[in-house]
Write a structure and sequence with these properties.
The chain is α+β, with helices and mostly antiparallel strands. The chain is built from 5 helices and 17 strands.
Amino acid sequence: MKAWILVLAVMLASPSIAIGAAEDIGAHALTRVPPKYPSEAARAGVTGTTVLIISVSATGAIENVLVERSSGNRMLDTAAIDAINEWTFAPAIEHGKPARGRVRVPVDFDMGDEDAPIRDAVADLPHRLRVPPVLPDASGTVPQFIEDPLPLEAGSVAAIVALLQAQGTPIDLPELPPGVSLYTLEGESGRTQWEVYTGEIPHAPSVVRKRMTQDGTHGFTVTRPLCESKDAEACARLLAYVQRPARQRAVPLKAPAGQADGTKGVTPGR
């Protein structure tokens, strides 16, 4: 079962017609592979629609995939293109003969059960990556800052940055200010997300690691910062911000009764 609802509307040039018919018909999809929702985008609640134009050869091969309209997120656009490259197509038919054609495909990434990606991310965590029980309040939330008991992957900011640059995956967000970088990393601590502060930022050099974990009944985020700035007050301000008295939702590891995860079917259209 998928942890999100994906509506994939396939715009065909004309209705399906037998190849032997005399009428001209447009290129169209024969088999479809649903795209994978990027986990980073899912956890961040990023949604959007990528509209693709697929050029199909007279043999049915994909010649080119063009982004006609971006979703606004590179991860979603890439996931849509990767999926389309796994599709198979029938060529257009003109005057009874195969011909080149184009197919327009909008790919809609829409979070259905918004808790499902978190639930999936923590369901099979090994016990060493879990934390002691954290009791949610009456509204189902826990503190925004829960200190991660796992040590950082390296003992200094410089060593961590080197590790992230060598093995991590940058998160490309155009609104990030200078000196701020985001990464994800797969390692001994599982999948982690990192905020890296360098350059002229007062609390640089510093890093903040976040990861999804669970306590046996709920999933939530835990955080571990490291500040090596020579400005002690700047480090204190960073830690005060990271540890601010906000709340986060504690996601039950079991979906509420009657709430099914799934993928909506492919809907052809004109």
